Amino acid sequence: MVATFLLAFVSFLQLLHLDSLPLSVELSPWSSSVGCSEVVILCHLWFDIFVLLCEGAGGGHAPDIIKVCGVKNVLPSSTNPTRPFTSNTIDEHLDMLMVCHHLDKDIPEDVAFAESRIRAETIAAEDILHDMGAISIIASDSQAMGRIGEVIIRTWQTAHKMKLQRGSLDASGVDNDNLRIKRYIAKYTINPAIANGFSRFVGSIEVGKVADLVLWNPSFFGAKPEMVIKGGVIAWANMGDPNASIPTPEPVMMRPMFGAFGKAGSANSIAFVAAECGIKTHYGLTKRVEAVGNVRRLTKLDMKLNDALPVITVDPETYTVTADGVTLSCPAATTVPLSRNYFLF
């Protein structure tokens, strides 16, 4: 907490990596674990906070950290393993939590801790808060809550579930759901870039930004990309046998391309450091170096299409979540798209 309050005086965006156990404190200048959700909300009176793990389960102060998603000066993010809420989510995560934290199913206190952290009610509410635009970012953590390779899949599975359960987000009655599409894309592109201070360089397709692009065949959107372009150079793409004499060889699979070899990776990447301190020369870096910026006065209102500020409450006994007085509840999905059928080979 000392580091947390000191940063208030220099107007830095503070990154909080929250813990379910309020006893843990990380005195890193960039990541701190603090005592309870009330302390996190109190901090926003002085400065802006980028909060990881303000979600339904998996991290953050149990059971009500999700309340901070309604605070203007908090930039909320949730991790992807609980996205979306399905019929297997609770069983899977209870077992995962027991193993990850070296808990014993024969010890009642360990079981009670695990059950207090994996809560069906708040996980279901997390689905709806994402769909409302109250949670601005979907990301991954490390270890148990990691699953870095599933960020995009879990994002669109959540969008699909909410489309089925809540209908179109466009109140005008048009025959599309473009608002929902743009809202969910922003959760893993421009909003993380804004929150981390490098939206000048990446996060959206604009003139002057780094040409980092992913091209998709519509049939496999969200599951398997057709081509990955890094800094304007093809780094990864679907390719068949290089010795083939026709354009339709089999099998076709993702392979490293020109941008993945030699010095291309460094030439097309950016290291975000204290650029004016001569870091590039001191360490002999071949990457382009830049400083982060525009993070000192960020608020939830800067999050594209994900700036909702509902008043959120959590019942400490039943874990029931409300937003502006409306109970947030939805059934668990029994099937999701972008799953096994897309990965048979």
Describe the structure.
Residues 1-18 form the signal peptide. GO terms for molecular function: nickel cation binding; urease activity. The protein has 345 residues and is an alpha/beta fold. It has one domain: Metal-dependent hydrolases (TIM Barrel, Alpha-Beta Barrel). The chain has 10 helices and 14 strands. It has helices at residues 2-6, 37-43, 89-100, 108-117, 120-132, 151-166, 178-188, 190-196, 264-267, 279-283; strands spanning 14-17, 31-32, 49-52, 74-79, 137-139, 213-215, 227-230, 233-239, 253-256, 270-272, 288-290, 312-314, 321-323, 326-327. The chain has a 5-stranded parallel beta sheet with strand order 2-1-3-4-5, with helices on both faces. It has a 4-stranded antiparallel beta sheet with strand order 6-7-8-9, with no helix packed on it. Strands 12-13-14 form a 3-stranded antiparallel beta sheet, with helices on one face. Helix 6 (151-166) packs antiparallel against helix 7.
Q: Could you describe the largest sheet, including whether it forms a barrel?
A: 5 strands, parallel
Q: In terms of per-residue confidence, which ranges show pLDDT below 50 for 5 or more consecutive residues? A: 23-35
**How many H/I helices?**
10
β content, as a range?
5-15%
- Mean pLDDT equals 84
The CATH architecture can be given as Alpha-Beta Barrel
In N-to-C order, the SSE pattern is: HEEHEEHHHEHHHEEEEHEHEEEE
Question: CATH class, anyone?
Answer: Alpha Beta
CATH superfamily: Metal-dependent hydrolases
Q: Which sequence of strands runs across the widest sheet?
A: 2-1-3-4-5
Overall body shape: globular
> Strand pairing plus helix content: what structural class?
alpha/beta
End-to-end separation: 49 Å
Q: Helix proportion of residues, in percent?
A: 25-40%
As for the number of domains, it is: 1
Number of strands: 14
